[in-house]
């Protein structure tokens, strides 16, 4: 490997393969406290490596493709994890998909958004972004969540928050159409609306926005980029795989504390979304809030738009019902998040208070999940 490649990648070259070895050795085991701690170290290393390699690739391909790449890559593997857990029959599988998707939505639209806004606003006085592109993303998230998580609560063809086969098929197709339409809008038709701004215009955006991810460094070479692509895939696989292995220890801790089983899904969702969270906060520190919001809302969309169709297909072979409809408490939290999200996005700039409000909604979600 060349000196430039080593300087750019450094320790992140070796971390994903080492973590993959740890995953191979620990897969299918029920680790004790010491082993779980070592696995946790490998998990953290994989998360940090994934963030680094995602940023290298994003620097090469430019925005918004870089944000889209990380969001889709993490979510595709997350979907595989959800389906695997449902098939394995571990825990309360009837509500597993719903609880995991809802946790991912709350973490992204409140946690990642809130952290990014607070960091950017405190460091740069205001967090500035393009309200048109971000508003389109939020509208898509709201529609996806409404069709797949809210509507099943009120359907009457089946008892409980369950969709019929036809309804689930429609929800799956609608999710794919909405997500596909947004990706086309973000990357082709109206790409400029999702680029970080370089001026102090109301949305912080101009059609001549610079798409370079870091104007203080040269773009990576093709060799460095493909190296990072390969290591990013390895890192993401190990993140989700190690999170699955750690889930046994998490389940033991949840049972010991007497928490609801939904807490397991929340913890795993937080671990899986850690790369996107770190990448979003780092972008906010550089005053590139648009990238942070692309990651947050893109991850929420991908989580719903890819998970629901996958679950719809998997349900052909699965026994029992899949409860997708939210509980009343979850509906209230989702509605509050929607209202606050709209009020945050419309002005195109935000103060630290806006981020704090989102973070408090996330805190309320976490508390009510532990103690409903």
From TrEMBL:
Which residue windows are transmembrane per the record?
Answer: 9-28, 34-53, 65-89, 101-122, 134-155, 167-185, 226-245, 257-274, 295-317, 329-346, 353-371
Where is this chain's protein located in or outside the cell?
Answer: Membrane
Keywords (alphabetical) are: Membrane, Transmembrane, Transmembrane helix
Q: Where is the Sodium/calcium exchanger membrane region domain?
A: 39-187, 228-369
Membrane topology for this entry? Multi-pass membrane protein
Superkingdom of the organism of origin: Bacteria
Per its UniProt record, what InterPro entries does this chain match? Alkaline_pH_Ca-Antiporter (IPR052946), NaCa_Exmemb (IPR004837)
- Designated name of the protein: Ionic transporter y4hA
């Amino acid at each position: 490997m060349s000196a430039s490649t080593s300087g750019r990648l450094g320790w992140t070259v070796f971390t994903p393969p080492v973590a993959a070895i740890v995953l191979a050795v620990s897969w299918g085991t029920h680790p004790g406290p010491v082993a779980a701690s070592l696995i946790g170290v490998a998990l953290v290393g994989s998360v940090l490596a994934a963030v680094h390699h995602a940023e290298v690739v994003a620097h090469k391909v430019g925005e918004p493709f870089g944000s889209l790449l990380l969001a889709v890559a993490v979510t595709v593997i997350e979907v595989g994890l959800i389906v695997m857990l449902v098939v394995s029959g571990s825990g309360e599988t009837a509500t597993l998909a719903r609880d995991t998707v809802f946790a991912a939505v709350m973490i992204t639209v409140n946690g990642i958004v809130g952290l990014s806004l607070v960091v950017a606003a405190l460091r740069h006085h205001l967090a500035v972004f393009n309200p048109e592109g971000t508003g389109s993303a939020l509208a898509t998230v709201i529609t996806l969540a409404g069709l797949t998580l809210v509507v099943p609560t009120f359907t009457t063809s089946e008892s409980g928050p369950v969709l019929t086969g036809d309804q689930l098929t429609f929800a799956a197709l609608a999710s794919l159409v909405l997500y596909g339409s947004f990706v086309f809008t973000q990357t082709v038709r109206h790409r400029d609306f999702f680029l970080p701004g370089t001026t102090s215009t109301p949305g912080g955006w101009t059609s001549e926005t610079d798409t370079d991810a870091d104007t203080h460094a040269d773009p990576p070479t093709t060799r460095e980029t493909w190296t990072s692509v390969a290591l990013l895939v390895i890192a993401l696989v190990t993140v989700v795989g190690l999170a699955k292995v750690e889930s046994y220890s998490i389940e033991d801790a949840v049972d010991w504390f007497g928490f609801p089983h939904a807490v397991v899904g929340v913890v795993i969702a937080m671990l899986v979304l850690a790369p996107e969270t770190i990448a979003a906060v780092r972008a906010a520190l550089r005053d590139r809030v648009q990238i942070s919001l692309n990651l947050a809302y893109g991850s929420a969309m991908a989580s719903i738009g890819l998970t629901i169709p996958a679950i719809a297909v998997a349900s052909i072979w699965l026994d029992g019902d899949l409860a997708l409809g939210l509980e009343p408490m979850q509906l209230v939290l989702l509605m509050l998040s929607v209202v606050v999200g709209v009020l945050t996005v419309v002005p195109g700039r935000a103060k630290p208070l806006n981020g704090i409000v989102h973070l408090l909604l996330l805190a309320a979600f976490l508390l009510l999940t532990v103690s409903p």
